[in-house]
Amino acid sequence: MSELSSDLTRLGAALEAAAAADVLRRWRPSRRLVAIAVSLVLLIPAAAIGAAHLIRNSEVEASLPAGAFILVGTQPRCTTVRPGVEYRCVLDRAPYHMVDDFTGVVYQTVDASRHVNGGCRSLQADGLVWECYLGEEAVRQNIISEDFLGAVQNEPAHG
User: Fold this and answer.
1) Where are the domains of the chain?
2) Which positions ≥6 away from 157 have C-beta within 8 Å?
């Protein structure tokens, strides 16, 4: 019986070794691993392209006076709220005095190619703080109309 037991032990070990070798030969990556690899291949270039198209704070700062004459010379300083979508801008001096209370006053913003790219809304009576939105978000915020987005504007708006 001990000879039979020894033979069975050797046979079991041989079967285990053969099964392990077979599994290694037939190993295929799981669906999850394949999905992760594909996602990385697609997302890394997309993130790089997306980052290249995000507007810088300095571009938003330049777009305020380009859109509205009352903001010329106010030296806006903008910070990103939502990249490429929303910016908070603070002026170093009050806008040209057109109204007694700037709260809620809106103006379009104009990019370097002289196209309307969004708009801003004054958050304070003195007109020193503006919330700016780019693209479709400016339309959703009722600052500009859909047909005005992308329009050519060769000089800042008056009035």
Assistant:
1) 2-53, 57-140
2) 67, 68, 69, 107, 108
